[in-house]
Amino acid sequence: MLLQVQDLSINYASSAGRVHAVDNLSLSVGEGEIIAVVGESGSGKSSVGLAIPGLITASIATISGSIWFKGEEISRLPSHDLRKFRGKEISMIFQNARAALNPVRTVGDQLLETLQTRDKDLSASRARARALELFELVGISDPITRLGAYPHQLSGGMCQRVMIALAVSLDPSLLIADEPTSALDVTVKVQILQLLKRLTAQIGTSIIIITHDLNVARALADRVAVMYAGQIVELGPAVDVLKTPKMPYTQALFQSLPRLGGERGEQLAAIPGQPPNLTAPPQGCRFADRCPHAANICQSAPELFGITDSRKARCFFPHDSLLRAQTSFNQPEEPKAAIS
Amino acid sequence: MTPTTDNTLPVAATPLLKVEDLEMKFPLHSALLRRTIGWIQAVRGVSFSISPGESLGIVGESGCGKSTLAETVVRLTTPTGGSIVFNGRDVTAAAGGDLRRLRRDVQMVFQDPFQSLNPRMTVRQLIREPMQVHRIGTVEEQQSRVAELCDAVGIDRRLIDRRPTTFSGGQRQRIAIARALAPKPKLLVLDEPVSALDTSVQAQILNLLNELRARMGISYIFIGHDLAVVRQVCDRIGVMYLGKLVELGESETLLEAPRHPYTQTLLSAVKALEADGSIDLTENLPSSGEVPSPKNPPSGCGFRTRCAYATDECASDSPELLDIGSLQEVACHFPLKLTDGSSRK
Amino acid sequence: MLKKRLRKIPSGVGAGIVAFWLFVAYILPIFVDLDPLATFPVERLSPPSAEFLLGTDQFGRSMLDRIAAGARISLEVGAFTTILAAAIGITIGLIGGYVKYLGGLLMRVTDGLMAFPGALFAIVLVAVFGQGFLQIVFALTVTFVPTFARITYGEVLALQGAGYVRNAVSVGCTTPRVIVRHILPNLIPSLIVQATFVCATAIIVEASLGFIGAGLAPPDPSWGVMVSEGQAFMRVAWWVLVFPCLAIASLIFGLCLLGDKISDRVEGRGAKTGAETAEGVVS
Known about the structure:
The complex is a heterotrimer.
Chain A: E1 3-14, E2 17-29, E3 34-38, H1 45-51, E4 61-69, E5 72-73, H2 79-85, E6 90-93, H3 97-100, H4 107-118, H5 124-137, H6 143-147, H7 156-168, E7 174-178, H8 186-203, E8 206-211, H9 214-220, E9 223-228, E10 231-237, H10 238-243, H11 248-255, E11 305-306, E12 312-313, H12 321-324
Parallel strand pairs in A: 3-8, 3-9, 6-7, 7-8
Antiparallel strand pairs in A: 1-2, 1-4, 4-5, 9-10, 10-12, 11-12
Chain B: E1 17-29, E2 36-50, E3 55-59, H1 66-73, E4 81-86, E5 89-90, H2 96-105, E6 106-109, H3 123-133, H4 139-153, H5 169-181, E7 187-191, H6 199-216, E8 219-224, H7 227-233, E9 236-241, E10 244-250, H8 251-256, H9 261-274, H10 312-316, E11 322-323, E12 329-330, H11 338-341
Parallel strand pairs in B: 3-8, 3-9, 6-7, 7-8
Antiparallel strand pairs in B: 1-2, 1-4, 4-5, 9-10, 10-12, 11-12
Helix pairs in contact in B: 3-4, 3-5, 4-5, 5-6
Chain C: H1 2-8, H2 12-31, H3 63-98, H4 100-114, H5 118-129, H6 133-160, H7 163-171, H8 175-212, H9 223-230, H10 238-269, H11 274-282
C-alpha cells in the first residue's frame, strides 16, 4: 500500500460549535491506483484531501487518526519533515488552476524554479529541457512559446495543464486532485481526464481525485469512495459501485443526475431534504432522515459493512433491489399550493 | 405534469420575445490612457424567438456569450446592435417607464444564490420587493402572495422572516425563484440556475422549474453549459459558440441528430463521460483544442479552427443560421448528414 | 505578533473602556458636582487624596473634575467630526459612484483634500478665526471627508457588480431604491469600522493641537492642553501629567479595540455556518 489512512477524524472549531467534518475515515491507496472520493459540498471530501499532505493545521482543526505513507507515519511528523513530502512525494492540484499560479511570473519560470529547488545541481539548460518535456507530456502545444506565457494569457484548461505539469515535475508517488475539472468546460474536461489517465499509465503516479461529479469518478477511477456527511458510505471498484450502487445515498445521487440517455421531462429523482448539520451529527445512520428505506434499526449507527471482498457499504439494507424501487424516490417533499 | 411540446404553440404563432441580429460588444481599454484598443464581441448577431409558454435553452461553453445574451435580453445592458421585441413592443433601447414595464414581465434568476440575494433582507422582504417596486396589490395581497410563493417553491413559511444567510444553496435558489415569480412575469431568464448546486439539489430545482412552468404557463430562457440539464427543462435548445448561435432546434431532434460539428463535439464529450463502466478516455473527440478568444475571433465560421470538416469557404464566408427543415436551424456550410449526425458510437 | 495578542482580548473590553468614558463624561456629572474651573489655591499640586481623588493641578483645580470635563470635549470632537465627515463623505461617495461623469471629478477633489494635512489646516483656521471648538471640528471634518468618500465610492463601485444589486436592478428597482435598500445597508458595517478609527484619530489630533497650543485655549480642560501644562510639573507632581496621558491612551485604545472587534464581526458575518465554514477555512 502506498497510502493508508486510518480512523481519520477532523473537527473544525466554528462559531456554531465543533464541526465534525470527517468522522473515522479509513482509506488506502495502492501503487498506480486511481481512487475517487465522491461527495457533495460539506461531505468532508476536501478536508480529507488536505489532511493527507498535512495542510490542515492544528490551529483550525483537531485531527486524530493516523496517515501512513510508504510505511512511514506522516501524520506524526513535525511540519518541517512533512514539507519534504509535499511536492516531492505528494503533490496537489486544485479546481482553480489560474488562482493557484503566481500571476506575475511566467509559467515557465514557476516550473523551472520548482525543478531547481529539488535538484540544486540541475543546470539551467537541463532544467529547461525538462520543462519542455513536461509541457509536452501534459499536452501543451507549442511548449516553447507557452513557457514564456503568464497565467492570464492562458485558458482555464491550459492553466490546469500547467498545474499538472508542476505537480508531476518532481515525480510524486501520489497526486491529490481536488475537483481538477469542475471549472472546465465539458470538451476540455474530457481532455484533462484523458491526460490524467494517461499520466498514471506513463509515470505510475497514484491519484486521489476528489470530485462531486459521478461521471468524472466513473471515467477516471479504479475505485471510488462515496462520502456523505463526513463518512465513507460506500467503497468499491468504480465500475461496480457506479453501476450497481448498494447504499441508498449513492443510488439516489445517481438517479438525481440528469442524463442524455434518460427520458426527457421525467421527474428527476431528487433527494429530499438537506444533509445533516455536522455540529451535531445524528447518532444513527446519517442518511436515515432522507432515506426512503429507513427502518428502526437505522437509529443505530451502521458500520462500513463488507458486502463482497472488494465492496463495502455503510447500510443495514445494502441490496440491489433497492435500485429498482425507484418510485419511492420520486416523492417531492414540498407542499404545493395552487398559484396562478 | 411533464412539460412537453403538446401545449406549446407552434413557432409560427406571435412570439412573446423576438430577438433579431442581437449584438453586444464591450470596449477593451489600454491600461494607461484608457483608450479603446479593441472590442470583445460577446454576442455577434443572435436571432431567435420564443412563443408564450415555451422554454428555450441556450447552451455553450464559458466565454461563448450566453450570459451576456441573458443580461441583454433582460436589458441589464443595452445591446450595441440588433433588436429585441417583447410582446410586440420594441424594447431594444427602452428606458424609464418602458424599461420598468419590461422588468415586470421579464425576470431573471442568477447563477450563484450566495451572491444574488441581499444578505441584509429577510425572505419576506426579498419576495415582496418586486411587488412593491411595481405597485402590485395591497399590502395584504402582497403578504399573502409571499406566503403562496413560499409554498409554491417549497420554502417553509415559518422561516419567512429569516435572512438568506441561514439557508443552503438550494433553498436560496428557491427563494430567488420565488422572488422572480412575484410580479407574475411572462418570461423568466434563468442564467445557469443550478450550476452552483450539488447534484441532488440540482435535481430538486430542475423538477421545481418544470412544475412551475406547467402550472403557470410562463416562458423560460434557460442558460446552461450542461446539455443533460438544459434538455431536462427545455423544449428547444440553441447552441452558442463564440457569440453566435450555431444550431437551434427542438431538443430531442437536436440531441439525436446534431447537424453542426460543434454540437456533435459537445455531445460526444458528454456521452464519453456518461457511458456506463470505465470508458476508453484515450479515444479522441471529433474536434480538439480550445475556444479562440472573443477579442479576436477567427474570420468566417468561428468554429473552423477546431472543425474537422473546415474548408477555405469556412474561412472566408460566415455561415448564416438557416432553416434546414424539421424545425431545426444550423449555421454551417456543410451541415452533418442525418446518417452520420447522430455521432453514436 | 501584537495583533495576535490583541485578538485574545475579550470583545467586551473595548466597548467597556468607551462606555466607561461616556459614563465619566455624561453620567458622572449628574450625580457629582464637578467644576473643572474652580480653583483651590491652598491645595495647589496636592497629590491624590480622599478629597481630590486624582490630585490637583498648579492652580489647585481638581484633576478628576478636569479629566471628566476633558472626556466630554474629546468625545464630542470625535463624535461631531465623525458624524459630519461621514454624512458629507458618504453623500459624495454615492454621487461619485452613481453619476458617472461626476465620479472622476469628485474623487480627484477628495484626493486633493486627502493630500492636505489635517493638523496644518486646523492651525491655519485657528490662526484666522481664533481658537475654538467649532474651528477644530470643521478642520477635522474637512480632513476626514475624503476617507469616507473614498470608502463609499469604492464600495459602491464594487457593489454595483454584486449579484444582489444586479438582481435588484433586474427586478425593476429604481436607482434610489437600489441605493437605499441594497447598497447602503451593506455599506454600513465597513463604514462603522472606519468611523471608530476616524473618531480615535480625531481625538488624537484634537489633543495634539491642544498640546501645541493651537487647539482649545486654556483654561478649557482639553486633555491635550492638560498634558502640555502638566509637563512643567512632571518632576514635582507626576499626577498632573500622568492622568491626562492615561486618559488619552485608554480612550484611544478602547476605540481601536472596539473598531477591531467590529471589523472582525463584519468580516465573519458573510461566512456560512457549519461544515461550509469549515470547508471554507481550509480551501
